[in-house]
Amino acid sequence: MTDQVEPAGGPGASGPGPDGAGFTYRASEQELIVVARPEARLRAQAEGVRSAAGSDVSALNMFLGDEQLTLEPLFGNEERLRSADRQHIESDDGDDVPDLALFYRVRGGESRAQELRSRMAALPGIDTAYVKPGAVPAAIGSTDRAPNVGESGRRKEGAPVTPDFTGRQGYLRPAPEGVDAQWAWQRLGGSGEGVTVIDIEGAWQLGHEDLTGKLAGVVVGTPIQDVAWRNHGTAVIGVIGGDRTSVGITGIAPEAMTAAASFQPLGTAATIHAAAERLGAGDIVLIELHRPGPRFDFEPRDDQRGYVALEWWPDDYAAVRYACAKGVIVVAAAGNGAESLDDAVYERRPDGFPEWWRNPFNPSNRPSGAVLVGAGAPPPGTHGRDHGPDRSRLGFSNYGARVDAQGWGRETTTTGGSWNQPGDLQGGTEEIAWYTDTFSGTSSASPVVVGALACLQGMLKAAGQQLMTPARARAVLRSTGSPQQDAPGRPASQRIGNRPDIKAAVTNLLPSAVGSGRAERYWDELLPYPPELPPRLRLFVAGEWRNLNDPSPDIRQAVHAAFAGGHPDVRVWFSDDEVVGLVVAG
What we know:
Blueprint: E1 31-36, E2 42-44, E3 49-51, H1 58-67, E4 70-73, H2 78-85, E5 103-107, H3 113-121, E6 126-132, H4 181-184, E7 196-201, E8 215-220, H5 227-241, E9 257-262, H6 268-277, E10 284-287, E11 290-292, E12 307-309, H7 314-325, E13 329-333, E14 371-376, E15 405-408, E16 412-415, E17 435-439, H8 442-462, H9 470-479, H10 502-509, E18 515-518, E19 521-525, E20 536-541, E21 544-549, H11 553-564, E22 570-575, E23 578-584
Parallel strand pairs: 7-9, 7-10, 8-9, 10-13, 13-14, 14-15
Antiparallel strand pairs: 1-5, 1-6, 2-3, 4-5, 11-12, 16-17, 18-22, 19-20, 20-21, 22-23
Region (Disordered): 1-25, 141-169, 476-497
Keywords: Hydrolase, Protease, Serine protease
Family: Belongs to the peptidase S8 family.
């Protein structure tokens, strides 16, 4: 969910597009979902359905034929799903996952979805049916499609070299400004090695010059042919896994494998399920979509007001719970609806939702298991702009007890253009070299959290430790990090959670004893490489090199003098490879 401009009239007062005019993404469709009765044991066929239990489904088949509709199993073959269910898949909170074999998507009659919903819900073998509004990563409005340019993957000969933009990526820096990715890169596995992330949305610029290292391509669905969708997906992937080179930007977890999953044509729930099937325990799914919620009767709006996270809909909730039960960490944008997810409007079960549904935004109910991410303000002065106190809730961000963590919701420097235009940081005619300084919304916040989690999983894997489960990931994000701050009219009680702090989280996950010893030799790194790392004083202690970042001139001089004297007595205390104390005795 991208939010480009917060108008003077307050969050959501007008559209978030250029000059507050509002904008839309193309090809977002409603979904008509049917939930079958368990006792009917429906099985989809090439034409119509049958009942494995011998129930009479002639009325259902007649209706489907007359209306030229098809029932498609939402999550795949029913027998295979029931076989998996017999293996007692449970989420890590110990509860069974909803029966995925009961969900179907209706194909055909899209313009009459609401009419068909009520009629289908009354048919034998059907428990209920509901309509899901189209899922989008940003606002609804109107625009002309921009041309599809620069997809060759290679820049024209003689094109200027892209500058190094990493100095503009404050989210990489130490806490509280950033998530301390630069510290993580110095640790074994801390660049996300061995971790795979699948980004679920609409489209990507897969040929971008800064995404060549670890981008695996599209693994589910068909990308939407629209430059606004491509810019959005490209920006998300850049925040997570942009290449670590001397040009452009660097992702938080540049060694993590990233892949793309388009929610077209399967729909959101089926795509979440399919992505989870392609991953192993400890990998990550990112959901970069939201849709209109009940606040305004599910109507699309130019200003995104009332838009909420996908997990509120029963089939998306079931898919997320399935993914989490497999040990896959699911991270989802909380949405740009300026909504309190604690509001009573979310307790009311909509017509068509199954009886078992309970509001997943209420912490008293069974959780989906996903990490829900809100949008926080970057430090004032970032790129010369001020969005309020650092880590305060941005006005468009949804909030509430359900939200687990926050990321940068403004001024996020990354790959891609600015909505349906070339990049505002670097544009031009070649889309593969576009960069933006203004990626925003819960869409920019969510990949910040994903990048931090990927770094942590990489370090755990490298250390031979058990990877975080979905529940453990949520707990770590809630118990560590840089705390949310108050803003005028947006107090910290409007919860969006902490900004991740990788270094603090590692201490929580991998507590290590402090060792000590005498330095045998040293190395003063005056010009670090990669250049985004801080200067280091490296000391060889107890058989390993230990790092002291940003040493003061006095410490440098003292260590130099001690070794120059021929009988150094430099006593070092360390945790892992980090120097935590140093005394120069001679």
